Structure formats: structure tokens, C-alpha cells
């Protein structure tokens, strides 16, 4: 793929600029954010009578929404007033007032500079709150008036904080909490006066802790004895009762062979006998009512074929009959009542075509009619009824089906009714 066509938005914008200036040297130009984008590559284009015709390898076209926004939990339609995020959204947390804290690897929100952290209020206005980081924010936990964040950064709000820290949700001031991890933090899970931290680090809280640790909420010191000691990255965690379920790339944890998914006794960090034995990475875990849900890249788990998503008995580790069979990687899951929301890189799941995000019935494993359709990878799903927040590497959510050929009205930027369906 040539560099100029690597990104669908860039492809259409550059095509329109080239066609409108007719090959002449162009004066100062403004990128049009009202021009519809595609969910795949654009190879060819032609302009005639105010219509831009494009051809390539895509299946949908739609209005540019940015990399993170809420969608309606019933219709799946995007919230049209949410400010566009330029970059990638990797995590989000509801502020409890219809607004959202978001983190990732982005440069601006609604055209205003924000370095990887932002707060959008319930009225869609961008908060002046602006701690910022110098690297990606991959995970966050909101607790009271404090936002805990982890990722790749080494500064947080202009203060030295290696990959994990916390900020005041009102002022953006960095707290004294400083576990000081020596490599990437992938997940945070609050637990009764302490923080569980997972990732790729080998030192945190002043102690050697391989990829998973429990640190206090004061100075951020590592618990003196809690030490599961994973041999490869831990990517996801979920506390359920007295058990901590973990997923990742590891093949050993707590001195036991555990392939990519395990259950730890929460109080001690010692593995239980539960052992589903996944044959590839587990990127997401969640649990409720005696069932543990796993999502990732695996094709076999618990000795049974399950394509990238599975439900496991919390006692036996045997997969249940629930089997949505995702066509691509599952990156994130969110369990809410009778529904499990899944996001990632798949194009079909639960027996239906679903572009990278879907709602699955907990009883049936089938996809519901809810179908927001993201244009690229979905990394995070969070709920605050009646909204579902989606974040990822996408440029648009929703749109209209157009298979490989489409036409756009140059004056409005919107797709026309022309639809050869190639």
C-alpha cells in the first residue's frame, strides 16, 4: 500500500485537494472534516459536476466522528455532538454526570490540543482540565476525585511519573502516589485500599515484581508478599469475589504452568487449580454468576475450539455451550446484565456480520440487532446508560453500506445515493 493511501481519511482528503486544484500549486489549504470517509483503502477517484467518485477496497462510508465517542445503547447511533478525537483512544471512564474521561494516544479533542488525556463534559464541552502525558495512556480507574492512569508515559502533568500515577479530577494536579514502574502498565484494578497493576514491568513500588503487583494507595509501595511473578506480560485483570482472573501472554504465573489465563486467590496472589489453558493471547477477561468470559487471539481454550471469545465455568474451567465465534481478534469486553459487549478487529461474531463491535446475548451468544459498525479497531467499551462509549483506532462509527464504489457531494461532503455495489 502506498504511503499516501494508507489512511482512508488521508486518501479522500488528498484526492479531493489534488482534483480541485487540477495539479496546480495549491495555496494554503484547510482539511475538510465534513467529507465522508471510508472504512478501507481508496485506489481511484474522479471529480465531475460537483461529485467526487471513489473506488477501492471498502464496505462502508460515513461522517468523520473521531476515535472515541458515545453511541446510543438502543439504536447504536453515534452521539453527533461529541467532539472529535484525533488519534487513538485506549481507555475511558464515565464521570457519573454523562461526561467521559478518555485516555490514549491522541493530540487534540474538538480541535483543542490535548496530550493523551482529556475530559469531555456531559454537555459535550471540553473541560479545561489538561494534565497531559508524554506517552500513551492505556488504562484508567476513577475513584472519588482521583483518576488513576497507566501506560507508556514518563511524565504526567509535567511531573515525572513512570508509566503510572494519579491526578485530581478537578484541578489536574498530580498526586504523591508514585509506584514508578520500569515498563508499560496495561491494566489497573482497584481493590479494597490497594491498586492491582498489570503490564510488562519487572520493577514497581520499589520491589521486583514481574508484570503484576499490588501497590498501596499511599506512596505506591508494592505489597511485601503478594507476588504472582508472571513470566510474560499480563494484559487484563478482573476481580470477582475473592478471585482475581488474569489474562495475557504468560505461560507461567505463581510458579505454576498457566497458559495465558489464570485465577489467583486475591488475598495471597497464589494460583488456584483453575486452568483453561488458552493456545494464544488473552486480551480481556470479565466474570459474573459463575462464568468467566475471555477474549483474545486464541482458537482453543479449555480443550475446546473457541474462536477468540469464550465463556468458562468458574469451577471446572470447561467452556460452556456459549460460542459467538469471532472472525478476528477480540480486544475488549464489557459485561452488563444480560449482554456482553465485545470489541476488537472482527467482522463477524455471534452469527452476524458486525464490524469490530457487537452486543452478545449472555444466554445465547448470538449478536443482537445493535450494530454501531466501527471503521477500524475498537479498544475500549464502557457503559453509562443510555450510552455506550466506544474508543479505538477508528475514524468513524455508523455510516452507510457502500461496497468498493461511492460518490460524495463536494458541497456537503456527504455520500450521494449512487451505489453500484461492486
Provide tags for this entry:
disordered N terminus; 3-stranded antiparallel sheet; 1 helix; mainly beta; 4-stranded antiparallel sheet; 38 strands; 422 residues
Summarize the structure in words.
The structure is a single chain. This protein is mainly beta and 422 residues long. It is built from one helix and 38 strands. The protein is globular. The two termini are 21 Å apart.
* % residues in beta strands: 35-45%
* Overall body shape: globular
Please tally the helical runs, counting DSSP H or I stretches of 4 or more residues. Answer: 1
Which stretches are low in confidence, meaning pLDDT under 50 for 5 or more residues running?
1-11, 17-24
Query: Whole-number average pLDDT?
Result: 94
What is the makeup of the main sheet?
4 strands, antiparallel
| Number of E strands | 38
Q: Could you give the distance between the termini? A: 21 Å
Alpha carbon gyration radius: 22 Å
What is the helix content? under 10%
Secondary-structure-based class equals mainly beta
Question: Outline of this structure?
Answer:
The protein is mainly beta and 422 residues long.
Element layout with pairings:
Blueprint: H1 8-21, E1 37-38, E2 41-48, E3 51-57, E4 60-62, E5 68-72, E6 85-94, E7 100-109, E8 112-113, E9 117-120, E10 137-143, E11 146-151, E12 155-156, E13 159-160, E14 164-168, E15 185-191, E16 194-199, E17 203-204, E18 207-208, E19 212-216, E20 234-240, E21 243-248, E22 252-253, E23 256-257, E24 261-265, E25 282-288, E26 291-296, E27 300-301, E28 304-305, E29 309-313, E30 330-336, E31 339-344, E32 348-349, E33 352-353, E34 357-361, E35 378-384, E36 387-392, E37 400-401, E38 405-409
Antiparallel strand pairs: 1-4, 2-3, 3-38, 4-37, 5-36, 6-7, 7-8, 7-9, 10-11, 11-14, 12-13, 15-16, 16-19, 17-18, 20-21, 21-24, 22-23, 25-26, 26-29, 27-28, 30-31, 31-34, 32-33, 35-36
Amino acid at each position: 500500500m502506498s504511503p499516501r493511501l494508507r489512511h482512508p481519511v488521508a486518501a479522500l482528503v488528498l484526492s479531493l485537494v489534488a482534483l480541485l486544484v487540477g495539479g496546480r500549486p495549491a495555496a494554503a489549504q484547510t482539511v475538510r472534516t465534513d467529507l465522508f470517509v471510508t472504512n478501507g483503502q481508496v485506489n481511484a477517484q474522479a471529480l465531475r459536476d460537483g461529485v467526487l467518485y471513489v473506488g477501492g477496497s471498502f464496505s462502508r462510508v460515513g461522517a468523520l466522528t473521531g476515535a472515541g465517542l458515545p453511541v446510543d445503547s438502543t439504536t447504536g447511533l453515534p452521539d453527533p455532538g461529541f467532539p472529535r478525537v484525533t488519534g487513538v483512544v485506549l481507555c475511558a471512564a464515565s464521570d457519573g454526570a454523562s461526561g467521559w474521561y478518555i485516555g490514549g494516544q491522541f493530540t487534540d479533542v474538538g480541535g483543542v490540543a490535548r496530550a493523551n488525556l482529556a475530559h469531555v463534559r456531559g454537555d459535550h464541552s471540553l473541560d479545561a482540565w489538561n494534565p497531559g502525558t508524554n506517552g500513551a495512556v492505556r488504562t484508567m480507574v476513577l475513584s472519588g476525585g482521583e483518576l488513576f492512569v497507566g501506560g507508556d508515559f514518563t511524565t504526567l502533568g509535567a511531573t515525572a511519573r513512570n508509566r503510572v500515577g494519579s491526578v485530581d479530577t478537578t484541578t489536574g494536579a498530580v498526586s504523591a502516589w508514585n509506584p514508578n514502574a520500569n515498563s508499560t502498565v496495561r491494566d489497573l484494578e482497584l481493590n479494597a485500599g490497594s491498586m492491582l497493576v498489570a503490564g510488562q514491568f519487572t520493577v514497581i513500588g520499589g520491589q521486583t515484581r514481574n508484570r503484576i503487583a499490588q501497590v498501596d494507595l499511599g506512596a505506591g509501595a508494592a505489597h511485601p508478599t503478594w507476588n504472582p511473578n508472571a513470566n510474560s506480560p499480563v494484559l487484563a485483570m478482573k476481580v470477582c469475589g475473592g478471585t482475581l482472573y488474569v489474562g495475557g501472554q504468560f505461560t507461567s504465573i505463581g510458579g505454576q504452568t498457566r497458559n495465558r489465563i489464570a485465577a489467583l486467590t486475591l488475598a495471597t496472589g497464589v494460583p488456584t487449580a483453575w486452568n483453561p489453558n488458552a493456545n494464544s493471547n488473552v486480551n480481556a477477561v470479565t466474570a459474573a454468576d459463575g462464568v468467566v468470559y475471555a477474549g483474545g487471539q486464541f482458537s482453543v481454550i479449555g480443550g475446546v475450539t473457541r474462536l477468540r471469545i469464550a465463556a468458562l465455568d468458574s469451577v471446572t474451567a470447561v467452556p460452556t455451550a456459549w460460542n459467538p465465534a469471532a472472525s478476528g481478534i477480540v480486544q475488549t469486553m464489557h459485561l452488563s446484565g444480560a449482554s456482553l459487549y465485545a470489541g476488537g478487529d472482527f467482522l463477524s461474531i455471534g452469527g452476524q456480520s458486525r464490524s469490530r463491535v457487537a452486543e452478545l446475548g449472555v444466554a445465547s451468544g448470538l449478536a443482537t440487532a445493535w450494530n454501531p459498525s466501527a471503521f477500524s479497531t475498537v479498544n475500549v467499551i464502557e457503559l453509562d446508560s443510555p450510552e455506550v462509549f466506544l474508543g479505538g483506532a477508528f475514524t468513524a462509527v455508523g455510516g452507510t453500506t457502500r461496497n468498493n464504489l461511492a460518490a460524495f457531494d463536494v458541497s456537503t461532503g456527504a455520500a450521494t445515493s449512487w451505489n453500484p455495489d461492486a
